[in-house]
Amino acid sequence: MNNTVSSRAELIAFCKEIVADKGIEAVSIREVAKRSHISVGAVYNYFPTKGQLLAATIGSIWSEIFHFSEESYDFDDFVACLEALFQSVAIGKKHYPHFFTSHALVLAFDDKIMGQKMMDQYWQHIKESLRQTLAKDQKIRPNLFNEELTVEKYVDYIFELFLYGITHEEKTAGIVQLVKNSLY
Prior knowledge:
mainly alpha, 184 residues
């Protein structure tokens, strides 16, 4: 056994290797123990359930893909921000094939409530970046937003299109053009 694994972060790194190699469905307590050369019980000391292991792994991958920090998506141009999000997804797909299409299904079967809370947390972070960027974008047509189309509603609509674009890459250019046409 390997006694050098000393943190959750190290185990998550092994999980991310598994996701990159075999997909999120291959992540299990036993597979992580095998890959990290520690006992199954030692993995359980860090992650009491498979759901917690999956949630931490998925959260780490989302953070890596979208570089969650205050400066990550600090744009003055809404379209540039949206394009950067799509670019992050494209890069993430190269490193973690099928992650975007399978991670929600994995969490749905293991711990639906925890999975939904976690996804909401990441999605809210992205939406907040979009809202902040929209507020800073000086090129937006005047009087675009009103009671029927608030900034919050607009961001919600665009975010839904963004999620659609994640699984339909061929549509991203059209989504970006639609946003340009609607804002400027």
